[in-house]
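Subject: Sanity check before I submit

Could someone independently write out the structure tokens for this chain? I want to compare against mine line by line before I put it in a report. The sequence has 290 residues.
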Amino acid sequence: AESEAETKPAAATRVGPPEPETLKARVEEIYDDRVIVQLETGETATIVLKSLTADVIAHPSEVVAPGEEIQVVLEKHSRGSDTLFASKRQADRLLLWNRLENAKETGEIIEGKVTEAVKGGLVVDIGVRGFVPASQVGRRFVEDLSVYVGQELKMKVREVERLRSNVVLSQRDYLEDQEKLARERAFETLERGQVITGAVTRLAVFGAFVDIGGGVEGLLHISDIAWSRIKHPGEVLSENQQVQVLVLNVDRERQRISLGYKQLQPDPWENVSKRFAVGSVVTGTVTKLV
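---
Independent answer below. Compare away.
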């Protein structure tokens, strides 16, 4: 099982305590240990350092600037007192969870940094802790997830459980969407006879698959890899190799792209009559018995 969150559907409606109200506020004064804001109600409130941000900062000016408009939540203990205390940190978190819940419905892309590779997937920082199951990291199986640590990912939200502080994300969904768009563009613009650069992604006994951009793959049939007869594409090509290929055919109906590699290499039969005159004696190697 990749994640409990992935197998348990999120509730249709959010349950729990009522959501606190967020208020607009304008930054009026900034001190070493606090920020003074004017609320949209006209009242003045104080934001202490611990209520300003979850990050470690040396001075409030790293987070806000005079005249800046921000969102805050009034802290409970300030109700009925002479001094109102507000929290930007709480408001930011509240707005983030609202955004994540909306992103699940709308398909909005969420960006985050991978902080850790754990058993079963990746932990990402999206303002809260997010989890990307191993099956949702790439379009194909990724053996070593640690290579993603420190990378910024673009992802789609799969599950949100606010009360459990649980968010399940998918980079695979994002990549597949991008591949679909790239594929549509490719079939609109690709023409037979074009020469393009791509990367070999997979080798099979019948040929090689080449990524020609955006995850769009074309097939390089084994008969179009070399002028000489080969038993396996690995005799000429290797995975991740950058190659120039010729577009042989674009089948828009079947969504297939046929590529050629040997067609861009010198044809050994082109000048055979000049290189081997009739009657001349040559030395050769037996390659096949029939």
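---
OP: Matches mine. For the report I'm noting this point. Residues 88-106 form the longest helix (19 residues).
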